[in-house]
Amino acid sequence: MELMEAISRRRSIRRFKPRPVEAEKITALLEAARLAPSGTNIQPWRFIAVTSAEMRGKLAAGTLKFVGEAPLIMVCCADLTAGERRPERISELKAAGAFAGTELENMSFADYQAGRDPVAERAYLNLNVAIAIEHMVLRGVDLGLGSCWVFMFSRKKVAELFNLPEHIQPLALVPFGYPDQDPPPRPRFPLDRIFLGEY
Predict the structure, then answer these.
(1) What DSSP line would sit under 1-61, residue for residue?
(2) What are the sequence ranges of the domains in the chain?
(3) Strands across the sheet with 72-79, in order?
(4) How far is CA 38 from the centre of its chain?
(5) Along the chain (199 residues), what's the average pLDDT of each consecutive run of 10 residues?
(6) Res 156: pLDDT
(7) What is the distance between the alpha carbons of residues 116 and 32, in angstroms, rounded to a whole number?
(8) In 3D, which of 167, 193, 175, 186 has the Cα closest to residue 79?
């Protein structure tokens, strides 16, 4: 499938067929997320694939009913310690030639960290996880799967259910499955409302 087709066909799917998502498709979703870009390559995303009826039922108790009815629920988390390994990631990028010919080639880690506060750092981690989630969602369309970003859930209950350490924070639930609905395109603003100009 061509990328723009996947983008235009993507919908938030909230009804799924009971057919399980094959193991190779789960791996393909995770591979799409793994290949996502992240600032200084910190790769803060962590995922749990929930497929058993028992665990989906337990997970559904802390979120919307349709989430638990999906044959696959991806629990998408942020590793809050990922930024601590930024010097190592930057060294890897430099060694790979990612900064060659730019001012970043000679920038120090201290320069990069200047002005970063904890709130901004958390937002930065969440943004990077969101990029990986969207890679997964679009790959799902390509594989014939529907999905829906869900933020209405108890983060505390999810963390307890999977015994997550404090530094692994649930960010979103994304149910995946074969769609049992074909919703029309959603309303979108015209370009002249979102494009502020070219200078």
Answers:
(1) --HHHHHHH--B---B-SPPPPHHHHHHHHHHHHT---GGG---EEEEEE-SHHHHHHHHT
(2) 3-84+119-177
(3) 45-50, 72-79, 168-177, 146-147
(4) 11
(5) 94 97 98 96 97 96 95 98 90 91 80 71 94 98 98 96 98 98 95 96
(6) 96
(7) 29
(8) 167
Which residue, 76, 64, 53, is CA-closest to 13?
64
Residue 198 identity: E
Contacts of 172 (CB under 8 A, 6+ apart): 76, 129, 130, 133, 149, 150, 151
Q: What whole-number distance in Å separates Cα of residue 71 and Cα of residue 25?
A: 12
Place of tokens 């990612």: 98
> Domain 3-84+119-177 carries which CATH code?
3.40.109.10
Please report which helix (H) or strand (E) contains residue 76, including its range. strand 72-79
**For tokens 């600032």, what's the residue?**
39
